[in-house]
């Protein structure tokens, strides 16, 4: 089975997570010839890490997660839309399969109160089908919402960071949670009130995630969190105040969160999904792109 999935080498990590990202019970149409394609092991890693991290977020918010055939449901139905995600988790060999997954995603979203997205890793879709993703999404009633990149790397020589204008505080209090939520909401154009309501009372952010807020004087200006997920470290929900960008604040607090997580866990493998603005920062830190993601949400109205 491992060879058929395109994995070049197997360690205990893959044995643990393959049941999540691959469902052998999938039945393909008998009349259609399936053209196999290679999916790199780092892409599978990125898929699994995303589904695992969002599973922690949703569970922490008091909601349940589920895994359907080829689709991880990580949906808190929170007003902070980043907590509402569907992730395509198995290779898509043909257009009909992608059509079914997108239709199922649209159907699921239609039954929920709050908006969210389905996350599709292009490398999980056959090269023959990738050019049809947007058209098939539109046919299913979905529209493009966001593009980002999967990245990963082994950070064995990360030094303890500092910035002359900043002090770092680990998230441990309600005030820290509010600051972290507010920074993310402003960075992505979402409601600060909704974000703070979603984060409020979180045990995960205060106790498990190595989450840090950077302060310039008394003002919270940037934040970053790193969480252990299945033997890797996952960087989650990094943000910088929109009025203080391009001053190195985001990179400094990201390095701080990574450094503290590595020191505490001994894990040096870091995974994340990056925005266009964040990608060059993570490349400077030592991470490299392994995949391209498209996010789709329900068409308004």
Could you write a compact summary of the structure shown?
This protein has 301 residues and is an alpha+beta fold.
What does the model show?
With 301 residues, the chain is α+β, with helices and mostly antiparallel strands. The protein folds into 2 domains: 138 residues, no CATH class; 101 residues, Gcn5-related N-acetyltransferase (GNAT) (Aminopeptidase, 3-Layer(aba) Sandwich), CATH 3.40.630.30. Helix content is 37%, strand content 26%. Strands 1-2-3-4-11-5-10-9-8-7-6 form an 11-stranded mixed sheet. Helix 3 links the parallel strand 3 and strand 4. The radius of gyration is 19 Å and the shape is globular.
Report, as a whole number of angstroms, the end-to-end distance: 43 Å
Number of helical elements? 10
Summarize the amount of helix as a percent range. 25-40%
Record the strand order, biggest sheet: 1-2-3-4-11-5-10-9-8-7-6
Largest sheet: 11 strands, mixed
Number of domains: 2
The tally of beta strands, per DSSP, is 11
Mean pLDDT: 90
The arrangement of helices and strands along the chain is: HHEEEHEHHEEHHHEEEHEHE
Query: Which overall shape is indicated by the principal axes computed on the Cα atoms?
Result: globular
Low-confidence stretches: 1-32
Structural class assignment: alpha+beta
Gyration radius from CA atoms, angstroms:
19 Å
**Could you tell me the strand content as a percent range?**
25-35%
